[in-house]
Structure prediction request, 117 residues.
Amino acid sequence: QVQVVESGGGLVQAGGSLRLSCAASGRTSTIYTINWFRQAPGKEREFVAACGWNSGSTNYADSVKGRFTISRDNARNTVYLQMNSLKPEDTAVYYCNAKTRGAGDYWGQGTQVTVSS
Prediction:
């Protein structure tokens, strides 16, 4: 099994920045990607960004390209989501998701990000 725990959410003004962390534990050798998703009130959960656990390759939703950066620190088993130029529409609960090779799909409990206008 893999466990992921998010941290770093909070309240920020529009134009500000936050950095979210996703700390993985357990069978981390089975992870092949760490993804960030978000869910705003009344909306479906949507993909934000992904990072290959070993490759470091990245992928972003169009809505965050150029503003968000996903990165990893394998020594710490942690993936970061640096969020700059935040907008009120970025307000959501942000979830970390670990996809593994044949060992399941794991989600964190989420961390709230609120961007005030």
Remarks:
- The mean pLDDT is 97.
- The chain has no helices and eleven strands.
- The CA atoms of residues 19 and 58 lie 17 Å apart.
